[in-house]
């Protein structure tokens, strides 16, 4: 899977303002900003992203996905940009 394909899956499943992915085709590192994360705990945010991938985690198309999830407000005030 390419970063473009993975970005497209996430972006089609969630309204994202920013989605950046790096990885080697199996192990991915993502930074995702979405208003949908407002009021959600970290685990809930991650579950929302995993839901956009369907069964790709179980079939090993995406072996690992490490992510940082932000609301737009958190992203605007984050030093991580």
Automatic annotation (TrEMBL):
Coiled coil: none annotated. Signal peptide: none annotated. Belongs to the BolA/IbaG family. This is BolA family transcriptional regulator. The lineage of its organism: Bacteria, Pseudomonadati, Pseudomonadota, Betaproteobacteria, Burkholderiales.
């Amino acid at each position: 899977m390419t970063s473009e394909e993975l970005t497209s899956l996430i972006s089609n499943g969630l309204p994202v303002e920013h989605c950046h992915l790096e990885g080697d085709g199996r192990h991915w590192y993502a930074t995702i900003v979405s208003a949908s994360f407002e009021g959600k705990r970290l685990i809930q945010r991650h579950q929302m992203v995993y839901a956009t991938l369907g069964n790709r985690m179980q079939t090993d198309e995406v072996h690992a996905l490490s992510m940082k999830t932000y609301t737009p407000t958190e992203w605007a005030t984050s030093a991580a940009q």
